[in-house]
Amino acid sequence: MDYLKVLKNNNKIISKTTYCKEDVQTAADLTLRCVFSGNERCSIGRRELLIYADSFIMLNKGTQYNTCISSEIPVQSFAITFDNAFVTDFYSSYTSSNHNLLNGIITNSAEDKLNETLYPFAGDIKFNLLHLKANLDSGLNDELLINEYLHHCLITYSSVYNKEIFEKARLLSIQNTGTRLEILRRLNLAKEYLYSNYDKNINLNELAAYACLSVNHLLRTFKQAFGRSPHQFLIDIRLKRAQQLLRKSNYSVNEVVTLIGFECPSSFIRLFKQRFETTPLIYRQSA
């Protein structure tokens, strides 16, 4: 269902289903973008982020970006723009200690720049947004309840951000905190590149150059942060995309192999069975 809902406190929710769309936009305020089916390509400068139903992005106020959808199946895109005052109130109430709250001391603000990268769309944040969308699709107009959903969305995003940025940065064997965060920012560039180009032959030197790291530094720190080498991470992405294609399309197994960037069907079948404990054909039949 398509709609633009503007609340009295200027929070905005946009739901759109389309096969083809291209927009150049500037985030008026902190903006969350996700899709519930298909995929959307989001470009920020030279970076291209391919958003599937298992990932989302949070855009800072003032970020210029381009979104593009070109698909044979309908893509359900969903976006929330959190008004600056709403975010400021969230930071002051959620991230401050009781002592600071009583004394009017705010530890964070809506002007803080967050790391704009792909985050896993799973767990509490996905559950919350699926419920919100289902209720909005059914005609929910209670703004108090809608804002409770949006407040909880910021709470769950804070948890995701802590896990994906601060906890992963602490895994890096680097002493300086600022340096760890900068290296993780570059590693996230490499991660985005793998997500957006999983169907292509990816050269390790090219990946390292894109992340502004040496090959050795990339290999060592990538595994520290994400628990896998870039190659293992890429294989995992390809197998997840194969799952989606087997479940939601009529492509043959050989066509799926080509679409996800594999060259050898037998290698794909072996890896798929190793990862999901079933063959692609049996998985399609059960799905």
UniProtKB/TrEMBL annotation:
SUPFAM superfamilies per UniProt: Homeodomain-like
Keywords: DNA-binding, Transcription, Transcription regulation
SMART domains referenced in this protein's UniProt entry, alphabetically: HTH_ARAC
Residue ranges of the TM segments: none
MF terms in GO: DNA-binding transcription factor activity; sequence-specific DNA binding
Every HTH araC/xylS-type domain range: 188-286
Gene3D superfamilies in UniProt: Homeodomain-like (1.10.10.60)
The organism's place on the tree of life at top rank: Bacteria
InterPro entries found in the cross-reference section: Homeodomain-like_sf, HTH_AraC
Pfam families per the UniProt record, alphabetical: HTH_18
Protein name: AraC family transcriptional regulator
Naturally occurring in which organism (per UniProt): Mucilaginibacter terrigena
